[in-house]
Amino acid sequence: MVDLWPSDINVDQIVVKSPVHVLREQASLLGRKTKNIVNARITSYERPTWYNPIGIAVSSLVSSPPTEPLDQKAKNFEYSFELIAPVLDNYSYLMFVVSFDINNYPLTVSLAKELREELTIEPKANNETEFLEILRQIFGATKTRNIIQALISQSVSYNRNTND
Q: What does the domain layout of the chain look like in residue ranges?
């Protein structure tokens, strides 16, 4: 069998971390920092069925004739970042949703209302460096820190009450 694929396709040579990889790294670090009292969950996010940002009904889309070049309208990848308190029946707090296409960047970040009110950040990152800066501001926000502290406090109190 003849291999027609380029020789530079290699899983060992990842040039850019995907945004979801960055989120999973940060989720892991949060768990370590809080001794897993508060964790973060990264999940594939689906917008509600009523959400239609471009206002086009699906039935109005027409397929191209086979001789026309393909116009690739790939769907975006969307991931939610939630804070989770396992002891509190897996209480979750949705912090933000990250949306990007197959190229990873640019990406957009949709913040929870309370974070939007506190932060004045551009919700778009053109590369990993800009994405990390957005995350640094979100994680360092007073609202984020207050939520984490409240979840820790309630989790510790819950554990003490159930052990008495």
A: 19-45+75-159
